[in-house]
Amino acid sequence: MFTASDWVFHDLTRPLHPDQERFPTDPPMSVHLLSTAADDGFEVTSYQVVGPTGTHVDAPSHVVPGGRTLEQIPASQSLLPLIVLDSPDVKAWEERHGRVPAGCFAALRGGGWTVPALEVLHSRGVIAIGHDTLNADPADLAAVGSFPAQRWWLEHDHWQIENLRPFTGLPATGAWIMATWPLPAGGSAFPARVIALTPTGQRER
C-alpha cells in the first residue's frame, strides 16, 4: 500500500512566468487577469503560451509528422522508476550502478545528451528521458539550431521532459518520477507537472 509518509516528494517543476527562460524564436508568455474573486466572485486569468513552455513534455510528434501525440502517451507511463546520470556516459553509469533497467525514466544533470548515449538507453528499453536544461542537446549545438539527440530520441517513438528543476537530493537509483500534463487534442508539447519520489531516509549517492 502506498503511504505518503514513506516518501520524500521533490517538485522538479519550474513555475511558469513571463520572464522565464525560453527558446529565442518563441514569444514570451502573456498573463491577463479577466476577473477577480474580490470584485467578481471568481478569479479568472488568461494565459497565452507556446506548447514547449517552462518544464514541459515533448511527444514524438514534436519532430515527427504523424508521430504519437501527448494524448497517445499511455497513462501507465505517468509513474516510472527513475535513474539519474551526471554525464551522458551510460556505460560508466552502468559500471557503478548496474545495467540500466528497462521501463525507466532516465534524467541527466546538466543536459547535453548524445546520440550514442540515447542509442544505449533505447537498447535498454528506457521509456523517456529528462534534463534540467532547456534543450536535450549540448548548448553549443542548440545555439546553432542543431538538435541531433532530441530528434533521434523522439524519432524513435520516445518522449522527453525538458527544463526540469535541478535534481538536488536525488539518488542515481531507487527513486520514482511522476509526470502529468493536460491533453490538448493533437498536441505535441505542453507544460507538465513533474515530481520525483525517494524513499524516506534514502540519501543521494
TrEMBL record:
Pfam families: Cyclase (PF04199). Coiled coil: none annotated. The lineage of its organism: Bacteria, Bacillati, Actinomycetota, Actinomycetes, Mycobacteriales. One of its GO terms (molecular function) is arylformamidase activity. The keyword Hydrolase applies. The keyword Hydrolase applies. This is Putative metal-dependent hydrolase. InterPro entries: KFase/CYL, KFase_sf. GO terms for biological process: L-tryptophan catabolic process to kynurenine. Keywords: Hydrolase. It comes from the Bacteria.
